[in-house]
């Protein structure tokens, strides 16, 4: 058996995957690696970051999947510091596409992928790049919060989170695009989710985090991930979706003067994204969970006078297609939302 360190030379790294010292650290939803394997045997070792494993609640351990030719071989919460999986074991040489992907979000924990082990004659190369690239920035809806749980009363658990069933990932699939997700449950621009009139300042996305791998309670080795700069040259989106405001709305509905503050902060955030990507199509979208804040987002976009920044309002969920946990969108609702927004994107990029 031989060991192969996964990196950008031999794998297509998904989203903001951190490559360092032979370990891939999967921070954001949907991060991971995709490669074409030719050989007889493949063992993949994946684990939970040391800090989260030691100090975090087990319900917040990372959830990850390994797919071979699109079929799930592993899909589970990583409950140990290291877990080994033999995902290919063939008497003859085979060629397979392998994808390792984090299903849960950045905030609670980080998944770690160790160098893979193969038979001595095996080799790998990166999966093909897509010509279209899409970045999606958002909150729990973008993460796929609760999509694998139909009990609306359930508490948060990474076991029920699955970005592969979220509108974000599904939109990329419908458009045949590579993707990068940057998303946090409960977070907003001026306030995170709050059940009363109290502002939630703990769950706010500062604009400067956009230039990093993003915040996590876990640690990327001996560093906090929000302290590690993200090199935007590694992923150059043609289209950027921003879906932030659902949690802000929970605060603004009880503090109406804050709607204008939200407009101001959204304007700042849009300018931040535009400064990084002067030619990208930027689409601000809201509404899968019904909100009152959407007109204030439209106001922010209009005052920028940028003809490549658009607004889009999803059809609001109404329960006909069910719910995930905590009244979040169901898998079927996410599918419908993905069809809606991908159709809109096609009208823009085909102009």
Describe this structure in words.
21% of the residues lie in helices and 29% in strands. The chain contains seven helices and 16 strands. The chain has helices at 50-55, 140-143, 167-174, 246-252, 258-276, 294-302, 331-349; strands spanning 2-4, 12-14, 18-20, 23-26, 32-48, 63-68, 71-77, 83-102, 111-113, 116-118, 123-126, 132-138, 177-183, 239-243, 281-286, 309-313. Strands 1, 2, 3, 4, 5, 6, 7, 8, 9, 10 and 11 form an eleven-stranded antiparallel sheet that branches. Strands 13-12-14-15-16 form a five-stranded parallel sheet, sandwiched between helices. Strand 15 (281-286), helix 6 and strand 16 form a beta-alpha-beta unit. The chain is globular, with a radius of gyration of 20 Å.
Keywords summarizing the entry:
single chain, about 350 residues, alpha+beta, Jelly Rolls, Rossmann fold, 2 domains, eleven-stranded antiparallel sheet, five-stranded parallel sheet, about 30% strand, globular
What can be said about this structure in brief?
The protein is an alpha+beta fold. The protein is 21% helix and 29% strand.
Radius of gyration based on Cα positions: 20 Å
Q: Quote the CATH topology of the largest domain.
A: Rossmann fold
Helix share, percent: 10-25%
Overall structural class, as computed from helix and strand content, comes to alpha+beta
The CATH architecture assignment of the largest domain turns out to be 3-Layer(aba) Sandwich
Tell me about the biggest sheet? 11 strands, antiparallel
Number of helical runs?
A: 7
Compressed to H and E, one letter per element, the order equals EEEEEHEEEEEEEHHEEHHEHEH
CATH superfamily of the largest domain: SGNH hydrolase
Task: Quickly name the level 1 CATH class of the largest domain.
Answer: Alpha Beta
Q: How many β-strand stretches?
A: 16
Proportion in β-strands: 25-35%
Gap between N and C termini: 52 Å
Shape: globular
Mean pLDDT: 96
Q: Are there runs of 5+ residues with pLDDT below 50, and where?
A: none
Any idea how many domains? Answer: 2
